[in-house]
Amino acid sequence: MRRPVIAGNWKMYKTAAEAADFIRELKPLVAGAEAEVVVCPPFTALAAAAEAARGSNIVIGGQDVFWENEGAYTGEISPLMLKDLGCSYCIVGHSERRQYFAETDAKVNRKVKALLEHGLRPIVCVGETLAEREAGQTLTVCQRQVEEGVKGLTTAQAVGLVLAYEPVWAIGTGHTATPADAQEVISFIRGVLGSIYGPEAAEQVRILYGGSVKPENIAALMAEPDIDGALVGGASLKAQSFAAIINYRGKGI
């Protein structure tokens, strides 16, 4: 059975002190959670968040990474640096990275491989824009992003990935794909993985939904058979709302 993952992407919010305070507030609220709890602060707050999370069931992730271990890459951060700061996870291919920073499928693939090489677990984001959705290209876009994102990975490596389906039109807009719509696409993504690695391997991969996830809609999303958790944006910035999402079936159940 796939263990759910609830990951919070803080984007460009919270100082180091604010991150530490948040983690300390969150810890008792999610101590009995069934889901794996991941918090992804900005780079400047990673160390403080990791220290505050020590001894708890909260794990820390980065929001992006560069694929080299070191070098003349001004402003970048390597997998080794993330690991040194206490990270276990890292988001790659988020739509904001693709949209604002020219992130390509090929770059996402290089980042995935670099993270895996150093024992970090990638959360690989895929999803269509509103224009692509209206043009009926949702499945085509997601298939391409998945296939290119996992290119060259072994079955063992692919099984260790976490994928996140994030329809771009639903991120930060208040609009959420219906549970049925999200299930349809996520089931399709699992099928794409199955065509590459086989159905048994694909069944082991955890696939999340992201896009205006809130305490009010998490239970309906999680009731779908192929949705294994959520990548949460704005609602992860307040401990009470993030905890309500994490404990969507009741604390400790």
By CATH, the architecture is named Alpha-Beta Barrel
Low-pLDDT stretches are none
Counted up, domains total 1
Major sheet characteristics:
8 strands, parallel, barrel
Strand content: 15-25%
Helix run count: 12
Overall spatial form: globular
The count of DSSP E runs of length 2 or more, i.e. the number of strands, is: 8
Explain what this protein looks like in three dimensions.
Helices cover 42% and strands 16% of the residues. It is of the alpha/beta class. The protein has an 8-stranded parallel barrel with strand order 1-2-3-4-5-6-7-8, surrounded by 5 helices. The longest helix has 19 residues, at 179-197. The mean pLDDT is 95.
Name its key features:
globular; TIM Barrel; 253 residues; alpha/beta; 12 helices; 42% helix; eight-stranded parallel barrel
